[in-house]
Amino acid sequence: MYPKPFSKFLAGLALVLQALATSALAAEGPPIPPGPLDEALNAYAQRRGLVISYDASLTRGLRSPGLPAPTGTDEDLSALLAGTGLSARRNAEGRIQLRKAPSSPAVELAPITVSGVQESAFGPVDGVVATRSASGSKTDAALLETPQTINVISRSEMDRRPVRSTAEALAYTPGVNAAWAGYDVRFDVIQLRGFNANYATYQDGLRSATGEYVIPRLNPYGAERIEVLKGPASVLYGQNTPGGLVNFVTKAPTETRQGEIQLEGGSNDHKQGAFDLGGPLNEGATLRYRLTGLYRDAGASLDRVDETNRYFAPAFTWAPNADTSFTLRVQYQRDLVDGWTGYFWPAEGTLYGNPNGRLKRSRFPGEPGVDRWDVEQRSVGYRLDHRLNSIWKVSQNLRYAEIDFDARNSFLNGFLDDEKRLIDRSYVGWKEQVYAFTVDNQVQAEFDTGPLSHTVLAGLDLRRVNNSYRFYMGTLGPLDLYRPVYGQRPRDIAEYTDTRTHTTQIGYYLQDQIRAGQWVFTGGARYDRAWADKQGVNFGSDAAGSQSDTAWTGRAGIVYLARNGLAPYVSYSTSFDPATGATRSGSPFKPTEGEQYEAGIKYEPPGQKAFVTLSAFQLTQKNVIAADPSDPAFNAQTGEVRVRGVELEGKAELGLGWTLIASYAYSHGEVTRNTPDYTGVNTEGKAVPNLPRHQAALWADHSFGGAARGLTAGMGVRYRSSTYGDAYNELGMKPVTLVDARVSYDLGALDPSLKGLAFALSATNLFDRRYVASCGSTTSCYWGQERQVYGTLSYRW
Question: Hey, what's the signal peptide range on this chain (predicted)?
Fold first, then answer.
């Protein structure tokens, strides 16, 4: 049960919701405020249930005077277009098309069809090319106008490629290494621009609940889109690592009836069923629902390991009018692994040779019936949006989450014999419970000051986490990795850690997006307070203590929107992340600080479904914990890490059935400041571990016509250059190139009665390339994922 103050707080929120609901029902014919023309058209299309078609270049940089007094007739559209130089006409199909006013020479443009509503940053993407995102601004902003790199993986893209995990969803995204720890079905390990982002995952703009050890494994089937915000993001989200964050935009209730049922089977006895249902609950679609669920029972690449996944996520939306929306989300997920997949293999037999040959990737080094991983997640939350008038809008985003975690495994310590066969093992286990409450309150105002148009966002967010954590160890007999004999049981089990931690973060932020003609400036500042209290025992020592930190962070950037679709930009942003521990003098560590300079250019070709981003950046993390030069037994904050790089991403629907996704990243990361450790070794000048100098990926698929109508075939290639797995740069991973493929067939092309029924065959690492993903030391190496093949039968309506 969560603390009583929060129960009272939730009760107060209920009263606020009731008041807003009453206000919403009382509103009649609400005005559409002045603002960007595409946003005004979006609001108008939603209200009237219209389909509007236009070329994106027509509205770029234009503003609408708004609609202060709606009449409910087509004259409203003329009022919205006043002063823009555009006019509207209705075609024979009843769709409204925009064009230049008759005083200008008529130009035939390939229209972009908006099916009832233009793309929203909080909803689905039509195809693989996204044009809007909220991750970089917390507002429904165009990607062209956001002065920071944002990569968007749409639902359509995830359906086109072989995707069953977050790592696979991010596999074609530049600057992301989401599988550096190799094959692991327990959780996703993510690195962004060289920095660990395991705990920087978000759902619908709120940080996911995490613990001392447990990292939730988010299910991509429940995502409408996955967005990667590169670089420091503390100005909007509070404490974070400098590399960025990953935001899952979950599936939301739909205004039209839709559904999907999937059955799937494949490698390692993989069996899966999934469903996704949604639509209106009443005639006016003011009540809508979405039910998403998945059940998976499968083996793993390791022998004697099985996994079971359950995922269920209902959501309901109440939208009494165009100005008010309330969406309730509930989620349940349980990931149970009978066995273990995160083993640290010795370098001899994986990275290096072994007198007995290479170790089998499928070898199980644990003990059947002993090794286990069990994570159960439950959450409930909502998002409320209410427009008060033509200027003001208020929003509240809230979630309460619980995690129960229980895991134990055989830990590999290294070979015991000169023959390199007998591995030393110990037994380790964890138990953890996490209770997390997060709320983000926002006020948004849109107004003009002379020639400047403002979108101002002010917010206050709060995060409270109560965590109980236990860690225990024991002994376990050795195992012959080349001829294993199982049946041993752990002995001498003792608890080493038993702690209870209460953490709180509260942040106040202010952001202004200013438009002046073709220029867009974004600036923001934030003040955070974060404190933690810990009680209990850690390895026999009293762990009681408290720590309090404060930090100011900010961001500034400017974009120029050229008429030809080019948008060059520059930006500066900062971040902070509290560091636990203390110096030799007993002073608590200061938060680590991140700082990024970025310049780039975005390109949205007029009249085409394509988007290209090219960026160059310098990212620095300061106050990194390092050995105290005066006493190596203690630590000091004298370290610094810098990453410089260039990233390129392009996504396009080229016509004639072709879709293309391409990316490249050059990254040079090094430790720019450090001190010798207790052995006297200094890593200053060393490369950042697990950061490849070069990454490249290319995916192309083609939907055939003619006699092959209904057939779609796609293939992708991923390249990663050599990396170092350890901080001392002694363990080098070789370059690797992997191939993925997918073929699908719409059975409706054979017989109209089979419309919606489709079959797909997909594969990752098609040629079964054997490689080592990473080695942190000579006793901790990770195998890369072997080939996986799946067949999927789906029915959509």
Answer: 1-26
